[in-house]
Design goal:
Blueprint lengths: L9 E4 L2 E4 L4 E7 L14 H14 L3 E5 L12 H18 L4 E4 L3 H9 L4 E4 L6 H10 L2 E5 L17 H18 L7 E4 L8 H9 L12 E3 L4 H7 L7 H13 L4 E4 L2 H20 L4
Parallel strand pairs: 3-4, 3-10, 4-5, 5-6, 6-7, 7-8, 9-10
Antiparallel strand pairs: 1-2
Helix pairs in contact: 1-2, 2-3, 3-4, 6-7, 8-9
Length: 290
């Protein structure tokens, strides 16, 4: 990676440009039965749509809709089942807030259905591992979040090992960004996510957040997902529904170290925390503190 490159100050989403003069928040809607966070609403489109509208009202810039759990040990679901869970939600929320809906899927078939339903962003936990996904995103002119995951959800937390977690994640993301651009995806529509909790121990997650600035050399906006993650539970001894304070602490520190977009289950609280943190961090940068 060239050290002279800096993270983009904006990303193209739909027909609009999302600027990062302040950190942005991506709300999470799990239209699943077995979400690790305890907030799944599978089979209840109306509840999912209502939750998404509430997230936008609370200040979310993007809402990300997923129909397959990616918690450790999770089993995959069929294309049809995932589409049934998500497409109606995507369609309704895209009509409510055009250009700001993301679909969390690694299946090209589900992703394309979501794009036709109004989604503008594909959030792929496999980092565009399927070449068909790259081609389809390029054809539609969509935006994408390329995430790092070691292994697959069923096995990813079985003793993950790295020589240097940050450099290995960075190398993976750099390779996948190159593949995405080679497939025709616009460079200005690509974001990266180091994949907190996806094939990483608590120590790996802490190191990634601490060294997040090193990923700035990729030249892409950085998405971070720390909300209610198990490493917070390990440090606090609390279940997912009681990890709000830990999630906010991790989110603020991630933004301090370079994150541009924070994925969150608790949107209102995250927006409020970042509204206080952002001007302080800007002043620190002006003073040369960070």
């Amino acid at each position: 990676m060239g050290s002279s490159r800096v993270t983009s100050s904006s990303v193209k989403v739909g027909t609009c440009r999302l600027r990062f003069d302040s950190p942005r928040v991506m709300g999470i809607i799990n239209v699943t039965l077995d979400s690790f966070s305890g907030d799944g609403v599978a089979g209840d489109t109306a509840a999912a749509v209502s939750r998404g509208k509430a997230m936008f009202l609370a200040g979310a810039d993007i809402v990300d809709i997923g129909g397959e759990s990616t918690r450790p040990g999770a089993e995959p679901v069929s294309i049809d089942a995932e589409a049934r869970r998500t497409i109606g939600v995507v369609e309704a929320l895209s009509a409510h807030r055009p250009g700001r809906i993301s679909i969390d899927t690694y299946k090209p078939e589900v992703a394309e259905k979501a794009l036709f339903a109004g989604a503008s962003i594909i959030n792929d936990v496999t980092g565009l591992g399927d070449p068909r996904m790259r081609e389809m995103i390029a054809e539609h002119g969509a935006s994408v979040v390329i995430m790092h995951m070691k292994g697959e959800p069923r096995t990813m937390q079985k003793s993950p090992r790295y020589k240097d977690v940050v450099s290995e994640v960075a190398s993976f993301l750099q390779e996948r960004v190159g593949a995405a651009e080679a497939a025709g995806i616009s460079p200005g529509r690509i974001m990266v996510d180091p994949g907190i909790g996806f094939g990483k121990t608590a120590d790996h997650n802490i190191e990634i957040i601490s060294r997040l600035a090193e990923l700035k050399a990729l030249g892409k906006p950085i998405v971070i997902g720390v909300s209610r993650k198990s490493f917070i539970g390990k440090m606090t001894g609390l279940p997912p529904e009681e990890r709000l304070e830990g999630s906010l602490a991790a989110a603020v520190l991630a933004v301090r170290n370079g994150a541009d977009i924070v994925r969150a289950h608790d949107v209102a609280e995250t927006v409020r925390a970042l509204r206080v943190a952002a001007p302080i961090l800007r002043k620190e940068r002006e003073l040369g503190g960070i």
